[in-house]
Amino acid sequence: MSELTTSEQQLRLALSMSSIGVIHIDYATQLASADEHAAKLFDLPYGEKISRDDVHSKFHPDDRAEIEACLADSMDPKGVGEFSMEHRIIHRSGEVRWLSIRKRIVFEETGGERKPVSSLLAAVDITPQKNAEEVLKRSQETFESLVQNSPFGIYVVDSNLKMRYVSNGTKEVFRQFQPIEGYDFKTIMHTLWRSDFAAEIVEHFQHTLKTGERYQAPGFVEHRNDTSEIEAYEWEIERTTLPDGSHGVVCYFYDATEHEQIAESIRRREQYFREMTDAAPAMLWVTDVNHACTFLSRGWQDYTGQSQMDGLGTGWLDMVHPDDREETREIIMSSLNSRRPFEHDYRLRTSKGTYRWAIDAGRPKFDAKGNFEGYIGSVIDVHDRHVAEESLRQRAADIEASESRLRLAAETTGFGTYDIHETDALSVWSDELFRILGLPPEGNPSADRYLSLIHPKDREAFQEVLDQSMAADGPEKHSIEFRIVRPDGETRWLIDTGRTFREGNADNRRVIRRVGTVQDITDRKLFEQSLQQAKQSAEMANRSRGEFLANMSHEIRTPMSAILGHADILIDHLKDPDNLLVVETIRRNGNFLLTIINDILDLSKIDAGKMELQEQPIRPDSIVGDVRSLMDVRAAEKDLPLKITFAGPIPETIRTDAIRLRQILLNLVGNAIKFTNDGEVHLHVRYDERSSLLYFDIIDTGVGIPKEKLDSLFEPFTQLDNTSTRSYGGTGLGLTICRRLSHALGGQIDVSSQPGRGSRFTLSLKVKAADKLIQPNLNTQPEKKAPKSDIRLTANVLVVDDRRDIRYLAQHFIEKAGSTVYTATNGKEAIDFIESKESPPVDLIVMDMQMPVMDGYEATAELRRRDCKLPIIALTANAMKSDREECLAAGCTDYTTKPLDQQKLIQMISRLTS
User: Is the separation of the CB atoms in 151 and 252 below 8 Å?
Assistant: First the structure.
């Protein structure tokens, strides 16, 4: 017996030292006893008998049915008499714990029948393991949700390069692959991109999957195989561990196609903003996300005498009165950090050295996606008002308590106040609030009455702010701008700023009181609308500039057409060398004027986003050969060697606009020759295969450029030497056009220079990865068409132009080629001539588009309405992008510009009448 006692003691000792708790249940008495550890696990009394039902009451309601089913099975005399399971129990404190239990039933056989007499239950607390499993499950669900619901480009491939998780942003890009989950990544890449580029992407994914090395790809611009569109992306990948423990690769990508256009748009809007704010009566300011001032309007400098540059960052604080400076810093910075609107008064030093009170008001600004961008605000002189307010506050301090003083100050400054006690439904409105709302002051304050006045379009937003402020865990303060419609029908803008007071903790927390102010801000809103109108006016002015340039082109090209055309006629009639030299001088200077006009129009087209690019495959060495052949003569005139070199092989072809690329290189090489008197000019071409960049270096040993002039070098109408004695001519537009053309071609121009030692201009172009590299050959030139022999015409032509000299010039060219010419001075005469039965037959019409009485557009349209089938050649001095389309839309057959090109005109007439 002592041995049994000793064994029992040893067993109890072992159990007490483990984490296992044991409960013994006697079915005869329906009583249970728990050891010390089991008592703690089940939250039962230790050392006393307890009811079996008390043990069962600890079972979690959601697990009770399953437990009772297991108990019933184990009590079956024919069963195994034991079971194991995991279930939850609930302590008296409400805490839920997970237990792993094993229960064995003891049977006795009485009268040939087995009956359960007792049971032994062993339990272990597995709550930490269960919590860990739940955290892991939620982590996996969160991971999948973050990837799949992201609007950005995120996707994950598994170790077999199959698409595993895909964000909504990725589905939009890969929308033709449905369903995309499980799709082969290699197939997707080879469907979207050319084979070598797709293979390179797949290789990077495989390398990252194998080594774990993160890879950030350089930005690229590629044609998509499936859509033939050009798209630009920036992307990076890294290895990740998937929920099943295997490795995968996650890719983040960003569509950068419109980045440059957006940047340019932002620069233009910033310029418009500066012009409008400089004209505004208030002092306007803007900060960045770090609360550093990045912009001050001109009004700040005029008022304080501090330069706009010195006021940036936190320099503006130097103008605040020393006694107000620290408080102003704390109040404004506190508001900025919490991203809420603010208004604060302080004394500001004027340009005369005196101090005046000003009110500084700001509000946060967010982009379309809700991202914080900084603050925008204004400073207004309120000295006279502030002095008056201070006087009122001083008088009120002698006769009223603190609450009365506050109410009087609020009313004086145009603030209405409210104080709402939610616990006893007591509401107090100031008289000023009744006045702002347009209500009689004897009315009863009511939330419903307030809400009924809010403009229908603002009611939902106001209700949302109100609901948030009334929530137990809502914000402490609120501020919202909205409109109301007063009972008399007038619409006013208000700002409601208030604070909510709560009591209690956690689930018992509740709102007890709301206080706030309401201010009429209609005047401020009207001012903001005036700024918007000013912006629209600036945009209209920009459109007017394009119309002005078109008119300028017409007014200059038309007389230049006559000058150059008549000069061509004179050459055919003159033999004396001196006379020929005079005519050649007229032609040369006339063509120089046309170059200036074309430069101005090119700049206008680029600024307006109307520059047309004709991309096609070209040989870079052929373009360089063209430049050499055109520039050799100019270099020889100054006795300068023009060197052309290549640093190794270059792409056989690139896809770009050959005319614009040639224009850039001719301008840069021409400038180098122009500003170099001794030494040489060197054009060096190199190709970086890793970055797919093609470089053109134009190096000279000329006069060089001072460092302080480099920043303004590419500004339009800028000359380094603007004196009346300058040595070099030009409009100052060439480099401006070159840089903007380079941007349009997807490239960049950089410059470095030293005065007296020369300059280096570098044009870099991002080209599609070359399929083939070759050794350059400057002797390879495009096949040139053999010049056509003199064309003879037999057609009858009607020339319509209001300018006699243009009619004469066109008539001379056409009759010289063999045709008969009839003339008219406006569109109405042309219609009458064509419709008259007495007029000779006409085979073709040359129609000027800008004429008095009836212009060419109207005349052409009218002829087409009258079923006139004759070919009509539009003649116009305009050279903007839409001119050809406008002429063809009016019914013209073809289009040519002034000054008249004799050969082009004759060829066009021959083609249309043959």
Answer: no
